[in-house]
Design brief:
This protein is an alpha+beta fold. It has 25 helices and 22 strands. α3 packs parallel to α9 (about 240-260), α12 (about 305-320) packs across α13 and α15 runs parallel beside α20 (about 520-555).
């Protein structure tokens, strides 16, 4: 059939395509040779040249089409976004305000010398490392250390470049030049770490060398045995490793597409393969394992003011502030349904607090020392104990000159963090480590909650890079997950850098190999699972394809498969492996999914969880109020808690058991997969009834005295 086509004038077309194939194959061989590798394309080059030399132009054309398609798919799969550091560079100040005898002058940062006095305006980035001259200042070091809470400095404290002035303007004395300052060092480290990250050799090349030797040996043996060069060409045609050239990049591309559908951008096939082999994961704390912003976790009231009034006064005063703590207090009030009152004469004092009038009352909020409260003041002691549980920070509230209460804020652990870490362990991660610039105390609290293997706290960007490189020294594949500018060097130094792109800094995003487009840490586990599945399918496709090719080579060696027919057989093998490789586009096998009305029900309960969280915090506040020494106040707090439990939490628990759990159980399969959660709901309802009965019992035996310790403990 093919001979008749050639006689009909097609031979010239096939030959032209074959010569194009020679050019493509030569370019591909040279490219891999320059990279110091022997590619799978050598056999393709020999096959197309041999086919043209023996007049098998149709076979040459088929090989050309397969080769061109494979290289195109591979290039598309392996294309990676450049790890540029524009965000780091753009963030660097270009000019500073230098104080001279005649006043302030604006000069380029390069002109700053050691000993110069620099004025840093509100919200400005500090250009050079220096020492604070003014009595106090408030700076935001989150870009450098990852610490979410502003830090108060006093005269003589060191001020790091790259931090932001979060308070009133202040002056510092330059201790270093711009080039020698900490922030410039971060930029250099990110660049160096990125430059030393070696590219991964593609999966196909690992098998290509062996296949190349086998193919050449069999072709040479066939030629020697038969005495015909056509026999050797027939072997080379079916030996063309298109299962490697096609199946691997298609499976990889499919995995990249599947990840993108889950909101994860993986910058190339090499990254996908590395991600599939992860066994050590480093996490930044702030904004990665935690939400990255302070939230109200507790409000403490007093005889003067209830907890809701305390929060209302603090939020009313803070609603005019842009301070990160103020934002957390205002959001906390809104979440708890606490109304705000217009404030006037508001004045912020950097490093201390805020004063003003709320309604007809004078209100001050801030540090205990700024309010004149000692460490052994009862309210300060209660607030300190509360803050210690969550490694939080305290804002004291004063009304008309009297301490009225306190608000405790903390950076909460992400709700999906624990589940994500468990999944990573199931997927092969042997060590999970936190590496953070935050203080050791808060870091250890989070590390214990999440059962991390190790916590490395108070780390500078340079120390983070050193930790990553030490872990990478062996055969471990190290992943670093972070979100801030200070994480950029570590992300670039790791085998795979993962950036929380939804809220992370652009420098982290550009230095990373994987970007989580949604503000969801669990997408990391999704990406690892997709990567492993894609790599597994790629290996399966390549292996099956090569086995079939070896069988076809053996048949061609015996002379039973001419070059033209062999090219079509090879094409059929390619179609089979491509179809198998495309399985990587599908959802993960066994992945539970809720769709349509079921998904709407799940989303509704998820929204209810967010609304109930502040109410659960309020239950803790009510429990703390019990034991005040006032019987009526104690019972009032207990009754309020009972209302929350019966009217808000109880109905939600029952609705979950009736509506949500059957859906989840059906999606997960197995034997009663929601049994543990259902038992928890039953226990909550049982304890609610117990609380109601206890309140009735205590109320029925009112003897006018305070509650005894046993009653207080049980009510709590």
């Amino acid at each position: 059939m093919f001979r008749s086509m050639e006689l009909a004038g097609w031979n010239g077309v096939w030959a032209a395509l074959g010569f194009v194939g020679v050019g493509i194959a030569v370019w591909s061989v040279v490219r891999t040779a320059r990279a110091g590798r022997v590619g799978a394309d050598v056999l393709a080059l020999l096959a197309v040249v041999g086919a043209l030399g023996t007049g098998e132009s149709f076979a040459a054309a088929v090989i050309t089409v397969m080769l061109a398609t494979g290289l195109t798919l591979e290039a598309r799969a392996a294309r990676r976004a450049g790890q540029e550091l524009r965000a780091l560079i753009d963030r660097q100040p270009r000019h500073v305000r230098r104080r001279t005898a005649s006043g302030l002058e604006t000069v380029p940062v390069e002109m700053v010398g050691i000993g110069d006095e620099i004025m840093v305006a509100t919200a400005d980035v500090v250009a050079v490392d220096g020492t604070l001259i003014d009595p106090e200042a408030t700076i935001d070091e989150s870009a450098i250390t990852g610490e979410p809470l502003p830090r108060r400095l006093v005269a003589g404290d060191a001020v790091s470049s790259g931090s932001i002035n979060a308070g009133q303007p202040f002056s510092l004395r330059a201790d270093r030049s711009v080039a020698d300052s900490a922030y410039a060092g971060i930029v250099r480290m990110a660049s160096e770490a990125s430059a030393t990250s070696a590219p991964l050799v593609r999966l196909a090349d690992r098998t290509a060398v062996v296949f190349l030797v086998v193919g050449l040996a069999l072709a040479a043996a066939g030629w020697a045995w038969s005495g015909h060069l056509t026999r050797a060409v027939a072997v080379l045609v079916v030996a063309t490793p298109c299962p490697l050239i096609l199946a691997v990049p298609i499976a990889v591309s499919s995995g990249l597409s599947r990840s993108a559908a889950r909101g994860v951008v993986i910058k190339g096939g090499a990254v996908l393969e590395q991600l599939a082999r992860v066994n050590v994961v480093f996490f930044d704390k702030t904004g990665t394992l935690t939400a990255g912003r302070p939230e109200v976790v507790s409000v403490i009231g007093s005889d003067l003011c209830s907890s809701r009034q305390v929060l209302s006064m603090a939020a009313s005063l803070d609603q005019q502030s842009s301070h990160v703590i103020a934002d957390g207090i205002v959001r906390g009030a809104a979440a708890r349904g606490v109304g705000l009152i217009p404030a006037s004469d508001v004045l912020e004092e950097a490093g201390g607090g805020t004063r003003g009038r709320v309604g007809d009352q004078d209100v001050r909020i801030g540090r205990a020392a700024w309010l004149g409260l000692s460490d052994d003041d009862p309210l300060v002691v209660r607030a300190t104990r509360k803050a210690a549980r969550s490694a939080g920070t305290i804002v004291m509230v004063e009304i008309d000159g009297t301490a009225a209460g306190a608000v405790v804020l903390a950076d909460r652990v992400r709700p999906e963090a624990s589940r994500t870490l468990r999944r990573l362990r199931e997927l092969g991660a042997k060590r999970l480590v936190m590496v953070t610039g935050d203080r050791r105390g808060p870091a250890l609290v989070v590390g214990k909650m999440l059962e991390l293997d190790e916590v490395l706290a108070a780390r500078t960007p340079a120390e983070k890079v050193a930790d990553i490189r030490q872990a990478s020294a062996g055969s471990a594949v190290v992943v670093m997950v972070g979100d801030g500018i200070n994480d950029a060097p570590a992300l670039a130094a790791a085998d795979v850098g993962v950036a929380m792109g939804a809220r992370g800094g652009s420098a982290a995003t550009e230095s990373a190999d994987v970007v989580l487009g949604l503000d969801r840490l669990d997408r990391l586990a999704d990406a690892v699972e997709i990567a492993q599945r894609s790599r597994r399918i790629a290996g399966q496709s390549a292996t099956v394809g090569l086995v079939l090719s070896l069988i076809a080579m053996s048949i061609a060696f015996m002379g039973w498969l001419p070059p033209a027919e062999g090219a079509l057989v090879q094409e059929a093998i390619d179609v089979a492996v491509i179809l198998n490789a495309l399985r990587a586009l599908r959802d993960l096998n066994g992945q539970a999914r809720l769709e349509g009305r079921d998904a709407e029900i799940a989303r509704r309960f998820d929204q209810e969880h967010a609304l109930l969280r502040p109410r659960l915090d309020h239950l803790l506040e009510l429990a703390d109020q019990i034991g005040s020494g006032d019987r009526d106040a104690d019972l009032s707090a207990a009754r309020e808690a009972l209302v929350v439990l019966r009217d808000e939490l109880g109905p939600h628990e029952l609705a979950e058991a009736e509506e949500l759990y059957p859906l989840v159980g059906a999606a997960l399969g197995g034997t009663d997969p929601t049994a543990a959660m259902a038992r928890t709901h039953v226990e909550i309802l049982r304890l609610t009834d117990r609380l109601g009965g206890l309140i009735e019992s205590i109320g029925a035996t009112d003897d006018g005295g305070d509650l005894v310790r046993a009653d207080i403990d049980e009510l709590r």
